[in-house]
Amino acid sequence: MLKIMLVDDEENVLNAYRRNIRGQFVMKLFNDPINALNSLKDDKEYSVVVSDFNMPGMKGLEFLKKFHEINPDTVKILLTGYADLQLVINAINEGYIFRFLTKPCESENLIGAIKQGINQFKLITAEKELLEKTLRGSVKVLIDILSVSNPAVFNRASLMRDLAKRIIKRLSITETWEIDIAILLSQIGCVGIPSEIVEKRIKGIPLDAKEEEIYYSHAEIGSMLLKNIPRLEKISQAISLQFKSSEVIDSAEHNFIESNVLFIAKLLRLLNDFFWIAERGIDHEKVINYLNEESYLYDALILGALEAEIKGAKQGYITLPKQLNELKEGMILAENLSDSNNYLLLPKGTVLSDIYIHKLITVSQVRQLPQQVKVFVKA
């Protein structure tokens, strides 16, 4: 059942709430707005919050604004006197107050306002759920298109995402759905360029100037594919910048773009270059050395986290040969893994996950793979 919160510094008002609306709603009462905000650390799921305006320590408007920052979906109702009307009107215009009631307020008016607030909350959450389902469906379709049209590119995007998760963890950054989806969809523009150019790039075969221009255009193609999908606008921005240097990304011409979007773009630039070099069969630690030689292209913190991750990954490990059915999550490939046609499945340095292991076993049923694979395992 949906909960409501009522906040007033006067105990007699809270007691009146208990008497008059008990049984109508599941409710929590607070006589201190600061305590009410602190309680949201443990439970912030409220459909409606009702607050008095004039409270010591924190005014009702400030309280509801802070509440809105923590949970924007909760519907906010303010109880106020006539002297405060202009302030309340301003707050409503800012968009975080649903309704205000003047004091004294009859219990039936309060109950009616709360019921309307609950209905508004249901509308907000239903619309949000529909949008999220639509978004998930759209993203899944795009990822499926990429995986079917060019499995090698999809494989690279998956490797990029796995490495990004470890970089983000080292940077103590909270992983967001935008980062995850941006990386998975970063290569979606490859569906719009000739497959032979993409294949040459992945195999490390040099491209001529015209082919390079065409290949790098996949950033803009991908951005155009995504920019009109609701809630993917920021991801579209990051993908369009993925081949720019860190300095260009941070330049004044991009001041209008949010900092988290710029971070994703810089992360993508580094991941793109890392795997472009690694896919040529170069050891991951040597890849880091190459990247450091052109460190001006990258964000120093992200490059440092990548270097720490790559160099720290093998500490305390020994190299052993393993059968495919002996592979375990967390093992690290000590060599490139290719099929009998020399098609690269996973590059050296890949940290194996259950998904990768399942994929290798499945591929081995239709393609010839090495009998044994050299991996790094914990000593």
Question: What would you say this structure looks like, in words?
Answer:
The chain has three domains: 3-126, 3-Layer(aba) Sandwich (Rossmann fold), CATH 3.40.50.2300; 150-313, Hypothetical protein af1432; 315-379, no CATH class. It is 54% helix and 12% strand. It has helices at 11-21, 33-39, 60-70, 85-94, 107-149, 151-170, 177-184, 195-203, 209-216, 218-226, 233-240, 246-249, 259-278, 284-293, 300-313, 354-364, and strands at residues 3-7, 26-30, 48-52, 75-80, 99-102, 317-323, 332-333, 337-338, 344-346, 372-378. The strands form three sheets. It has a five-stranded parallel β-sheet with strand order 2-1-3-4-5, with helices on both faces. It has a three-stranded antiparallel β-sheet with strand order 6-10-7, with no helix packed on it. A two-stranded antiparallel sheet has the order 8-9. The chain is elongated and about 80 Å long. The two termini are 53 Å apart.
Helices and strands in order:
Layout: E1 3-7, H1 11-21, E2 26-30, H2 33-39, E3 48-52, H3 60-70, E4 75-80, H4 85-94, E5 99-102, H5 107-149, H6 151-170, H7 177-184, H8 195-203, H9 209-216, H10 218-226, H11 233-240, H12 246-249, H13 259-278, H14 284-293, H15 300-313, E6 317-323, E7 332-333, E8 337-338, E9 344-346, H16 354-364, E10 372-378
Parallel strand pairs: 1-2, 1-3, 3-4, 4-5
Antiparallel strand pairs: 6-10, 7-10, 8-9
